[in-house]
Every structure is written in C-alpha cells, then in structure tokens.
Amino acid sequence: MQFDKDLNSEHAELFLEVRGLIKKSIGKEVKEKYSKNITSFFTKEGGFCYIKTYQDYIHIGWFRGISLDDKYNLLFGNGKTIRGQRVRKLDSTTKKAIKYYIEQTLYFLIEYNELMKIKRIKNDKGT
Which terminal CB of the chain, N or C, has fewer other CB atoms within 10 Å? Predict the structure, then answer.
C-alpha cells in the first residue's frame, strides 16, 4: 500500500503535514481512500486530490486541475483533467495555494453536480 510507503519515506513528516492540511481544509466530511499507488481525498460532492511521496517532493494530483484557476502558478501537467503540484516545504504560500485549490475544486464540484441534476431532469422530461 502506497500510504505505508509514504509514511516510511524520508519525506514522511512533510507528507503527514500536507495530508493534515488537505483533510482540515476540505472539512469534516472528507473521506480518505488508500490504494496501491496513491492516497485520495473525497467528499459526497466528489474527488478533490491525491497525494504521494516522490524522491524530492510530495505530489498533489488535483483531480479537476484543468478546471482550476491557477492564480499561484503551481500546477503542471497536460493530461485531460488532472494537474499536479509539487510540495517541497509547507510554507505560508504553499498552504494558501493548497487551501485555494481545495476551494476551487469544491466550487467546481458543486457547479458540476448541479448541472448534472439539471441534465437528468431535462432527460427525464424528454426535452
């Protein structure tokens, strides 16, 4: 399990700090999922991100990164939806950025879920 590898890595302390900040920032309804390769964070609204240790940093993969306003210019990658963030230290700017990306993800998920409800209602009515 990746979580055990993360806890035994040389970046375990930073991993736990980032994990704690993510959980606290998402809120009490956060659910943590452990898989073979990553540790992910979800709520009833949907998925927020995953974390994983790498040799030189903690990687946060923002599930809806393509849709986030990257005002901190920290996101990288060119996949269809996910954007990554490297965390080498948890300074005040990094904390603000993580909280901001969580907020942006929540806004995205709420809007997306509402649009899906509207589409379902329209489809049920046959319009």
Answer: C
Rounded to whole angstroms, the Cα distance separating 68 from 102 reads 9
Q: Do residues 25 and 99 touch, judged by C-beta distance below 8 A?
A: yes
Rounded CA-CA distance 20/122 in Å is: 41
Say what the pTM is: 0.92
Cβ atoms of 50 and 60 within 8 Å: the answer is yes
In the chain the domains, ranked by start, together with CATH numbers, are 2-125 (3.90.1150)
Could you report the per-residue pLDDT of 83-124, keeping only the tens digit for each? 999 999 999 999 999 999 999 999 999 999 999 989 888 888
Question: Hey, which bits of 18-123 come out as E strands?
Answer: 31-34, 39-43, 46-53, 58-62, 75-76, 83-87
